[in-house]
Design brief:
By secondary structure, the protein is mainly α. The protein contains 4 helices and no strands. It has a domain of about 60 residues.
Length: about 110
């Protein structure tokens, strides 16, 4: 990574809303595209990026103020994602049902 990127991340200005306010190096449009759909499209995505940057900055500040609460929320979110990823669906149930039925069919009648 470049030194300026690392410096901005350490200073906390990497995700700052000011990063998307048309500073030097920001996306600028040619004059023929100004006022049309292209400018509206670019402005929309700039605003989306600015909103996400503000949300990330606020989240970072909240996490610094209340680290235990942030850790608890992160663990709860991770547990929810793991539970959702490992939750069996109807197909898994049918596969297990067929598999157990085949195993049961292989046992002799005296044991069943």
């Amino acid at each position: 990574m470049s030194d300026s990127l690392v410096r901005r991340m350490r200073e906390g200005t990497f995700f700052s809303p000011q990063a998307f306010n048309g500073k030097k190096g920001a996306l600028s449009l040619p004059d023929k595209w100004r006022g049309g759909r292209t400018e509206k499209f670019v402005n929309y995505w700039r605003n989306v990026a600015r909103d996400y940057a503000e949300a990330a900055q606020e989240t970072r500040e909240i996490c610094r103020r209340r680290p235990r609460r942030a850790a608890a929320a992160a663990m709860a979110a991770a547990a929810t994602m793991v539970a959702a990823a490992t939750n069996p669906d109807e197909r898994d149930f049918e596969d297990a049902f067929v598999s157990h039925g085949q195993e049961l069919a292989c046992t002799p009648d005296a044991i069943r």
